[in-house]
Fold this protein.
Amino acid sequence: MAGACTGPGMAAATGRTILVVGDSISAEYGLKRGSGWVALLERRLAKEHMAARVVNASISGDTSSGGRSRLPALLAQHSPSHLILELGGNDALRGLPLAMTADNLAQMTASAQKAGARVLLAGMEVPPNYGADYSARFAALFRKIASDHHAGLVPFLLKGVADVPESASLFQGDRIHPTEQAQARILENVWPELTKLLK
C-alpha cells in the first residue's frame, strides 16, 4: 500500500518522503482500506499543509528480520527523507531473542540514516504474561536504540489503546490488532514525535 498525501509537485518541491516500514499494526490488518493510522497521517499532513509523500511498505506478520532484508531495496527505490520503523512486535510474539531484534532494528536505523533519512522508532510493549523481566527488556531496547543512534522515539505506539480500562473495546476479536476507532489515537502518539523530525 502506498500513497501521496499532497500533489506530486508539492511533495517533489520539498523532497520529503516518509517511508513507513512496519507490520500489521501499520498495514491495516482487519480494517477497511484507508482507515489505518498511516492513511490518517497522510490526511493530517495535507490538512497541516506539510508537503510530503507517504509510502506505506508495511506487511502483516513481518518481523524485524524481514524488515531488515527488505529495507535496502526500499531505501533505494523511495530515497526517503524520513523512516518510521514499526517492527518488533511479532518478534516478541514468536519469542525470538531480544538481542536479535535489537540488532536488526539498530542496523535498520543506521542504514536509513546513512542513506540520509531521519528515523522515528515506534516503541512497543508486550503483555505482562511474558514475564516482567522480558517485558521490561523488550520496551527498553527501543529506548536504547533511539538514544544510541540519536533517532526519534514514540515510547509506546499503543499508548491510550492497550493500557486503558476500555482497551478490550479498542481491539479486534483477536485481541492483538487495534480497531478502526483506535487508529486516530495511534496517530496522536506518532504525530508530535514525527513533526519534531519534519521541522
Summary: The longest helix spans residues 98-114. The chain has one domain: 2-198. The chain has a mean pLDDT of 92. The domain at 2-198 is CATH 3.40.50.1110 (Rossmann fold).
